[in-house]
Amino acid sequence: MFHKKILSKLAIFSLILISLSACQTTNIKKDYSSFREADPRSILIVPVVNNSVEVDAPDLFLSTLSRYLAERGYYVFPVNLVKNVMEEDGMGDANLAHEVDPTRLGEIFGSDMALYVKINTWTAEWAVIAASVTVEMEYVLKDTRTGQTLWTDSQTRQWAPKTHNAGHPLLTLIVAAIQAAAVKAAPNYIPLAQQANYNAFNQIKTGLPAGPYNPKYQNDMEDF
After folding, report:
1. Would residue 219 count as lying in a domain?
2. Is CB count within 10 Å lower at the N or C end of the chain?
3. What CATH number does residue 41 fall under?
4. Is residue 12 part of a domain?
5. Contact 198, 68 (CB under 8 A)
6. CA-to-CA distance for 89 and 83, rounded, in angstroms?
7. How far is CA 63 from the centre of its chain?
8. What pLDDT is stored for residue 15 in this prediction?
9. What is the span of the domain harbouring residue 100?
10. End-to-end CA distance of the chain
11. CA atoms within 13 A on the CB side of 72
12. Count of CB atoms situated within 10 Å of the CB of 80
């Protein structure tokens, strides 16, 4: 009887742990009431703040953003044009641009929203037989008419070469060393950045509601 009581308690405890785990992994739907009320149609991408040590990260990442926002149904202002205009207006520094009142950007460009992105991690690490590439970003969308934050998200993506069993320990080590050397010579961040953007903007419950140039516009209330 004593053992049965212990087993019963363990079973209940296990169910509680499973339930907690399920709660932690389930996406909680964001509050889109302000977003829906604003009903934005266009997005201005502000120069990207780079908190990583890779000086090329902002330009590389900037090239991956427009496509996914356009696919969600929003007009995206040409990023190079925006960058040039902001430089001429004394906002060439990305950190400074992020501090500017969003309503000022709305007055200059006539956009409905401004997207602010910070790159926190953009690194490639390698050892003799191991390598990994990691990107981490924060996204913020602000209403350029009111300055209100309408949406935020963060994404982290990591890639590491798959271990291939060549049938012989020495051959396996050689393959791993070649893969690590390839990452060291030319780490490819773009696929990870693209994955991060796709997930940030398309994930149900946490992404962006369909814009006016998407067939699902105002028909995705259950998802967003």
Report:
1. no
2. N
3. 3.40.50.10610
4. no
5. yes
6. 10
7. 14
8. 34
9. 30-202
10. 51
11. 25
12. 10
Closest alpha carbon to 86 in 76, 74, 98: 98
Express the helix, strand and coil content of the chain in percent, nearest 5 each: 45, 20, 35
In a domain, residue 223? The reply is no
Q: What DSSP letter does each residue of 135-197 carry, written as one string? A: EEEEEEEEETTT--EEEEEEEEEEE-PPPP--SSHHHHHHHHHHHHHHHHH----HHHHHHHH
Burial profile 129-165: b = 16 or more Cβ within 10 angstroms, e = fewer: bebbbbbbbbbbbbbbeeeeebbebebebebebeeee
In a domain, residue 75? The reply is: yes
DSSP character string of 120-151: EEEEEEE-SS-EEEEEEEEEEEEETTT--EEE
- Give the span between the Cα atoms of 141 and 76, in whole angstroms: 13
Query: How many domains does the chain contain in total?
Result: 1
Crossing angle of helices 102-109/79-88, nearest 10°?
Answer: 110
- pLDDT given for residue 92 in this prediction: 87
